[in-house]
């Protein structure tokens, strides 16, 4: 009997062990199932995020494209501003060169005017006027006329580029030069005269020399130097300045020569009386 009960106890323990292993296995299955469920949830979450990410990438791509377009537009604006600045710098450089040239010309004119008023010798005054017309105006063929006192004629007294005999007397008020002296305004033409005798040609520039309303003379330019393409705004200013300074210098030298002649005459009378 005892052997039968011991055998039944062993079988009971074996059955309990089987049930215990079954319970453990069931718990393991439940734990594994929970783990798999967590992984499935994670995968589903990633799938949902992946399903949403294309829209995010499209949005980000759109924002990046917009930013690139904005930067390109800013770059174009900067390049346009840079070109404008370069153009302004080029203009400033050209203007600087023009100002330098104007300053040089004005400095030369100052020196020339100083030379004009530094002498009272009529022949020296004419020589200085000729140099000014050549160097500052750039004339190749021209003539300087002087109006004697109590006369209505302009007599040629100095010429450059042609013989003085080729220039004739001009009546004030007649022809371009005579009209310029009569009205006191500079007459300037853009084109050079056609061929023919100089006396029959119309000068490209007629500069009247006047002291107030008194006609002193004129400068008639018939041809410019080859390197002189035309007249600038500064040239027209030079015409006006030259007209005033040259007229004053000629007038002063004339008065000085008259006073010298009068002093010489008076001195002659005094010498006769004292003898």
Write the topology of this structure.
Layout lengths: L1 H115 L5 H16 L1 E8 L6 E8 L9 E2 L3 H9 L3 E2 L16 E7 L2 E11 L8 H42 L1
Antiparallel strand pairs: 1-2, 1-6, 2-3, 4-5, 5-6
Task: Explain what this protein looks like in three dimensions.
By secondary structure, this protein is an alpha+beta fold. It has a domain at 117-263: GAF domain (Beta-Lactamase). It is 66% helix and 14% strand. It is built from four helices and six strands; from the N terminus they run ααβββαβββα. Strands 3-2-1-6-5-4 form a six-stranded antiparallel β-sheet, sandwiched between helices. Strand 5 (205-211) and strand 6 form a beta hairpin. Helix 1 (2-116) runs antiparallel to helix 2 (122-137) and helix 2 (122-137) runs antiparallel to helix 4. The longest helix is centred in the first third of the chain and has 115 residues, at 2-116. The mean pLDDT is 80.
State the main characteristics.
66% helix, 4 helices, single chain, alpha+beta, 6 strands, 275 residues
What is shown here, in short?
With 275 residues, this protein is an alpha+beta fold. The chain has helices at residues 2-116, 122-137, 175-183, 233-274, and strands at residues 139-146, 153-160, 170-171, 187-188, 205-211, 214-224.
């Amino acid at each position: 009997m005892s052997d039968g009960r011991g055998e039944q106890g062993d079988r009971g323990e074996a059955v309990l062990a089987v049930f215990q292993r079954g319970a453990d296995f069931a718990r393991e299955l439940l734990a594994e199932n929970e783990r798999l469920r967590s992984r499935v949830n994670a995968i589903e979450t990633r799938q949902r995020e992946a399903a949403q990410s294309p829209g995010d990438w499209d949005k980000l791509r759109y924002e990046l494209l917009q930013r690139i377009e904005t930067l390109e537009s800013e770059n174009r604006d900067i390049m346009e501003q840079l070109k404008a600045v370069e153009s302004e710098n080029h203009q400033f450089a050209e203007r600087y060169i023009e100002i330098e040239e104007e300053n040089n010309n004005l400095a030369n004119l100052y020196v020339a005017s100083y030379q004009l008023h530094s002498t009272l010798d009529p022949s020296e005054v004419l020589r200085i006027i000729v140099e000014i017309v050549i160097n500052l105006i750039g004339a190749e063929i021209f003539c300087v006329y002087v109006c004697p006192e109590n006369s209505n004629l302009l007599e040629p007294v100095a010429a450059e580029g042609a013989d003085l005999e080729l220039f004739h007397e001009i009546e004030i008020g007649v022809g371009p030069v005579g009209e310029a002296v009569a009205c006191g305004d500079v007459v300037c033409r853009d084109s050079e005269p056609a061929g023919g005798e100089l006396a029959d040609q119309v000068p490209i520039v007629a500069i009247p020399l006047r002291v107030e309303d008194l006609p002193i003379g004129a400068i008639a330019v018939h041809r410019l130097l080859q390197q002189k393409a035309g007249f600038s705004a500064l040239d027209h200013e030079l015409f006006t300045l030259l007209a005033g300074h040259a007229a004053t210098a000629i007038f002063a030298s004339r008065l000085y020569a008259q006073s010298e002649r009068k002093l010489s005459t008076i001195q002659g009378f005094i010498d006769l009386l004292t003898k």
